[in-house]
Amino acid sequence: MNKQKSIELLNKAISEELSAIHQYMYFHFILDDLGYDLLASIFKKTAIDEMLHTEKFAERILFLGGEIEMKPSHEVEHIRDVEEMLKWAMKSEEEAMEMYNDFAIEAANARDSGTKQIFEQIIADEERHFETFETEYENLQKFGDRYLAQQAMERSKKMGINPVE
Ligand SMILES: [Fe+2]
Ligand SMILES: [Fe+2]
Questions:
Q1: Is 91 left (phi over 0), alpha (psi -120 to 50) or beta?
Q2: CA–centroid distance, residue 104 to ligand 1 (Å)
């Protein structure tokens, strides 16, 4: 088994996950401020999933005797347009699926089937994330501003019931 190769792949994966967490939380903050509760919570929940992916990769690095670098691959983009946020998220999930498919093959070539399996498990989650973002993107295309207005009105209704919030 080529442990160094696996540790390198796992650290690259963590870099992608950290960037996704930062970007999704940024989207969550903006959407929450706008009152779009559904989208805000989708981004927050997805960020938590990406955190759990980071944890799985980190545990594997320690098992292999490596160091966890924890370097985000890129800076947060200050995107405030909802359509652009969803496009960013779909692209990011697609890139993650492709990257982890490649990494699963590279891990197999390094004769590390444990790491290969972790990448394969996480690909299934990224596919689910992609589908969720795609559904919301399609809703936005179909219903336009009404889709966003609906979410803002749901927030107002909830506050009407419970004005303390
Ligand atoms: Fe992930
Ligand atoms: Fe994801």
A1: alpha
A2: 14
